[in-house]
Description:
By secondary structure, the chain is an alpha+beta fold. It is built from 14 helices and 31 strands. A 7-stranded mixed β-sheet has the order 2-8-7-6-3-5-4. A 6-stranded antiparallel β-sheet has the order 9-10-13-20-15-18, with no helix packed on it. The chain has a 6-stranded antiparallel β-sheet with strand order 22-23-24-31-26-29, with no helix packed on it. A hairpin with a 7-residue loop joins strand 7 and strand 8. The protein starts with 6 loop residues before the first strand and ends with a strand.
Amino acid sequence: MYRLDPRYAPAPQAALHTGWLAVASQLPYGRAVVAVEGPPSVDWSLLADRLAHELTERGTPVALLDIRSHYAGPALVRSRTERPADADDPYFRRLADNPLGDLFETLPVSAPPAEGLLLVYGPGAALVEHDVLWYADVPKRYAEAAVGAGEVGANLGLPDEKPDFRRLFYVDWPMLDRHRDSLARRLDAWLDVQHPGHPAWIAGAGLRATCATLARRPVRTRPYFNSTPWGGHWAQRELGFNPDSRNTALGYELIAPEAGILIGTGPEAQAEVPFQLLCVLEPLSVLGAEVHARFGTSFPIRFDYLDTVGGGSLSVHCHPKESYMRERFGWAYTQHETYYLTLGSDDTKVYLGLRQDADVDGFRKEVERAVTDGVPMDPEDHVLAFPAEQGQLFMIPAGTPHASGAGNLVLEISATPYLYSLRFYDWLRPGADGNPRPLPYEHGFANLETGRRGEAVARDLVQQPRTLREGTGWREEVIGELAEMFYEVRRFVLDAGAETADDTQGRFHVLNVVEGEGVTVRTAAGDRHELAYAETLTMPAAVGRYTLRAAGAGPVRVVKALVR
């Protein structure tokens, strides 16, 4: 059965404490400066009040310093963190590469009070002199919700302003992630405050020991589905996600910059920590030496679901080519994608590539009329449509126009960059706010791959399986491989009860059960992990040899992605 809350035990030396009383009891009794760092989405006032209350109750004097009160003025913060070249782009920004210190003109001087503790808190607290360093966190989905709700202060460095998604994605998150990663090896504690009345605390050394263990065994990140105007209902009906939401659209199986891992023993005793911490603390174990040398600590493959079952078609869009992504947007690599049809049929569609007779100028004029005058267009006049046959993989290199049609469940196996969808047409569909959804078609046409069209699309991008190896009751197939894409997709086909062996050979694998009840994964080190239908599992490079054994009474298919 699909797990909504996959959870892993902390390392033996990693004590987990929950509740404000237990958390406050971990603070020093003597004179000290305690810095509590973290993102704007933390409820900092509540955190400071609860810690101060518990410290006072135990007899420890405490002084409070909200680091946000020392930020530079909004105009200066914006001038330092937003590039003039982005001012005329209403859709995207280049990823910010600023240090968090750019939020300040001068940092406050911190010193232990005459007695008790000075508690410095908020984004940037770690930049002042301190004796103890904690990181308080909530998963990024909370930040998206706060910005969507228009909560004042949800953007980094602008505590009194209404928020903006562009700033969140392209300025806040890059700055915050880089800052957090720089602190990971010296944190004294991690504090999960997504449930404000029931925080969870784990010591820094224990967290690092736990990450070291998880980096050498199979691990599944906590899944999550959000809602969009095109979303379907498969995940609501089949997996039990978000039953009260309008739909389940984008399923975060493994999107490394946002993914979290649950560490603990149960719902009342668990902390969610970013998957990225594993990559920062244990890059060779997670990624492997060659992948780490190429991508640094960026985990370069993502798995997510596009649920349009009972929903609408996605926008017709493409993604930036590599040079454009690097030079214009600041990502070191680009967003190649593949669509695996976990559910589909001959009656549903995948849009992919240009027709042989496509007139790009005519395509552009129709897009412009749709944007300026609300004139509908038929994408199939310009873009090919293929039957969305279940089990088919569609290759989508950067610059290729594409979309999943209504009625599909797509497992999107892609490169990790995911914030630059260059939409051409969105069916004149309004967004959640009732306004037309943004269409950055100028970027789209600047990146449109006009040479890949007609028969070449069907030949190169809709590939047929090629058996790589086989044995009794099983085979491994290559189902997607393209020279310009840095990763490939394979598939295991196992009969009921069949078992096959594999080896990471120094680079991570990502697995997903696309058909059948599931598999049991066993590693050479003795770790065992059950993987059910629709679940995704990361096999770190350090795992080495492992086996897959089909569960249930029928055949099983497992998709595998790896960096070539």
